[in-house]
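Tokens as discussed.
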């Protein structure tokens, strides 16, 4: 194809045009990825990822699309070795989410709890209120901490009341689900709570 021919041309060009070579490599990697030749795509990008930040970001994006969360997490950590990237709200929330997918509940919750310290721009704030905080609540509920999830989702609800009726309806839906889960948890726990009392009552009667 023209892409692979362009890549071969820039790979042999002297003097080397680094910008064009980088662009050709990334475009060709996407071409291979879309064709399903993913090992070729990743191989091309890995060859330049140590010195090419755009290639590293592309590896991060493609592994996310492939649901390869372990590799995605590793690429994001490499990206965040840069201090500026480490302080990015978007990167921090992505790191928290990846820890959820990797079944690391303690680290996931810690990262989500600390996210507000990274909010610095209106875009960060919009992302936090529009998506991240409700995701945080859902994840905490998934961990069985429904009371905390309710508190978080109520923050979303209060933020959008009178501003965005669709997000308000979503927040009410989530809150209904959390309260239902609390009720189910209590109904399952009640027999366990009452069992020692029944045993105690029986033992007293027999004595």
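Sequence:
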């Amino acid at each position: 194809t023209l892409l692979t021919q362009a890549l071969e041309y820039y790979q042999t060009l002297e003097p080397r045009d680094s910008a064009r070579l980088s662009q050709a490599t990334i475009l060709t990697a996407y071409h291979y990825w879309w064709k399903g030749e993913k090992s070729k795509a990743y191989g091309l990008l890995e060859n330049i990822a140590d010195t090419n930040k755009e290639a590293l970001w592309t590896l991060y994006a493609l592994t996310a699309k492939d649901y390869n969360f372990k590799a995605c997490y590793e690429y994001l950590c490499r990206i965040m070795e840069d201090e500026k990237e480490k302080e990015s709200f978007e990167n921090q929330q992505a790191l928290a989410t990846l820890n959820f997918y990797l079944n690391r509940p303690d680290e996931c919750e810690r990262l989500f709890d600390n996210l507000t310290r990274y909010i610095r721009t209106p875009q960060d704030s919009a992302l936090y209120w529009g998506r991240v905080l409700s995701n945080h609540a859902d994840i905490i509920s998934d961990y069985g901490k429904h009371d905390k999830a309710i508190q978080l989702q109520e923050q979303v609800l209060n933020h959008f009341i009178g501003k965005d009726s669709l997000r308000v309806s979503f927040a009410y839906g989530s809150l209904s689900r959390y309260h239902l889960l609390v009720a189910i948890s209590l109904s399952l726990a009640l027999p366990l709570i009452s069992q020692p009392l029944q045993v105690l009552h029986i033992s007293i009667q027999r004595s």
